[in-house]
Design a protein that fits this description.
Length: 367
């Protein structure tokens, strides 16, 4: 993670790779000896390669959006409303944008994350965790006297969500004006992933980078998806579930013909790639030239909460590596299967070896 001073120095080097340490020191009003130390640290962090200030331009995925404390209650039996239900409670780190970039980092892709954290104990723990996962959060917002976003959910004994409450007002601080300061980071990203936990004007700003890079949008929920209904076509790739796709398109999905109508709706709006998550029925994918299904066999999930986020991460990985749409969908579904079979929202078993192993097993399922 770069410090503010290191980012200033790296910016000057990018603008003029032949700039001397004395020139950098003069521009920043800092002693040359201090600049030498900073440049050494930047090199250790991998942003500069060797002599001559060669910039490491390895592709990175930038995630912009939510991170929160996930508090999940699991019932041992059918949930009885307005009653106390025996079960267990777990606390973990979640948030759609965080889960996506967490998975992407585990897939070996350089990962950047812009989010908002409070200065409470949870914010400090999340910050430490993200850094340990090799996720660069140096451009995120750290708010004083604010509580970190919290997501409270209750799952039944099948692992399906019964109800949830999201306390995420803190993300209102992630404004277009703030992101404008880091516009180059958005512009140079190989892929941007964002979610509808952000405010409408912020999502609109991110969508304006459509001519600079590819933006993937995870819709999160039906209500939040409606924030982008007027400019959904400005996103390169979208990943709604069935209900979100119905809400945005106004088309009820009952069969394959309906899926095609929904797909054409989004393609006509300007979306390039569409992936509709159909739960245990798999994923429908579509572009102007490709369409189809990836249908895995039925599984008994341990937790469904993070499966969609793993799918989005797999889609991003496929796009970074120029997979065709079918291979991208298969890669994403494989990542989601690994997550479904894990109690954690982000599975520690997510890595390329396990994903490709799962894809090979999927071939036996006659996809």
């Amino acid at each position: 993670m770069l410090t503010e001073r290191e980012r200033e120095i790296l910016k000057l080097i990018k603008e003029n790779p032949l700039i001397s340490q004395e020139e950098v020191a003069k521009k920043l009003s800092v002693a040359r000896s201090s600049i030498a130390v900073h440049i050494s640290n930047i090199m250790k962090k991998g942003y500069i390669i060797g002599k001559g200030y060669l910039i490491n331009e390895s592709p990175y995925v930038l995630s912009i959006g939510g991170v929160n404390i996930d508090i999940q209650g699991y019932s041992y039996s059918d949930i009885k409303m307005q009653d106390s239900n025996p079960g267990k409670v777990t606390v973990s780190y979640g948030g759609v944008a965080k889960n996506v970039i967490d998975n992407i980092s585990r897939m070996g892709i350089r990962s950047e994350f812009i989010t908002v954290l409070g200065d409470d104990i949870y914010g400090e723990k999340i910050k430490k965790y993200l850094i340990q996962q090799n996720i660069d959060i140096s451009d995120s917002i750290f708010l004083k006297d604010q509580h970190t976003s919290t997501y409270l959910s209750v799952l039944d004994f099948n692992g399906e969500m019964s109800v949830a409450i999201a306390s995420m007002d803190i993300f209102k601080a992630l404004t277009p004006d703030y992101l404008e300061k880091y516009s180059k980071k958005l512009e140079y990203a190989k892929i941007i992933v964002t979610d509808t936990n952000l405010e409408t004007d912020t999502l609109k700003y991110i969508s304006t980078f459509k001519d600079k890079t590819k933006v993937i949008l995870d819709l999160v929920s039906t209500k939040k998806a409606m924030k982008v209904i007027d400019f959904i076509g400005d996103f390169h790739t979208i990943k709604p579930n069935k209900i979100e796709a119905e809400a945005l398109s106004g088309i009820k999905i009952s069969n394959e013909k309906d899926l095609m109508r929904v797909g054409n709706f989004f393609i006509d709006k300007g979306v390039k790639n569409l992936f509709i998550s159909l739960g245990n029925k798999g994923v429908f994918y579509m572009s102007k030239t490709e369409r189809g299904y990836v249908k895995p066999k039925k599984l008994i999930p341990k937790n469904v909460t993070g499966a969609g986020d793993a799918l989005t991460a797999g889609i991003a990985y496929g796009m970074v590596n120029n997979f065709d749409l079918k291979e991208t969908a298969k890669f994403g579904v494989a990542a989601s299967i690994i997550t479904l079979l894990d109690e954690n929202t982000v599975s520690q078993n997510i890595n390329l070896d396990n994903i490709y192993k799962t894809i090979k097993e999927m071939k036996l399922w006659k996809i």
